[in-house]
Amino acid sequence: MTDARYLKRTIVKDVISSRNLPEGERNLRIYLPPGYNELLSYPVVYCQDGEQFFNFGRIATTANQLILDEGIEPFIIVGVEVDIANRTAEYAPNGNRHNGYVTFFGDELIPYIESKYPARRERSARILAGDSLGGTVSLHIALAYPDLFDQVISLSGAFYPASRAIVELAPDLSRLSLFMIVGLQETAFKSDSGAIYDFVAINREMKAILEHKGAHIKYSEHNGDHVWGFWQQHIPDALRTFLHAEA
């Protein structure tokens, strides 16, 4: 049974204007931690598939549990919503909306959040998180904005050939730290293009490429399929990797 304290969550719906997105705006969901105080400052977790992270990943409930019971330093969560019809175009590096989305994230979203909310502005206080192609675009945002990001949570990242080719061309990546998981049953996933991918194989390959470039990886494989029921189980450990207990 879930502790009632975990369900007392403050989630604000927000809308950001954008010059880089065709719609001109994007919906956000902002989780504010227990005891939120604008005089303080907080790390921020930026989630792709924002609505799903809240509804299916239960990330706000998990955050309350970590903060209230484990003494994890309070943090803000920014869920960036996505129109499923445009998801691959925005998240895949060869998608026709990808560059605009990445630019929106680095040039517009970060300044907006850090001007409106008491978010810390050092790189170590920003964490990117995503599932499947959301993990992919999180990595590409970190590559595009090295001064802003060096921490990525990838839940069954969809590291298709276009992504691997980009990372293989990247210079030293020793600044990067990634939390990566994949499910052992994800061996025949059908992508939006109709191609079948072995996610265990492609995650192992990306791990090897990243480590060769000097990145620091916390990698694990578990029984699980390409579904939120699997990813949800590992969100607490992912957050603990980059957010620490208060002294």
TrEMBL record:
Pfam families: Esterase. InterPro entries: AB_hydrolase_fold, Esterase-like, Mycobacterial_A85_antigen. This is Esterase family protein.
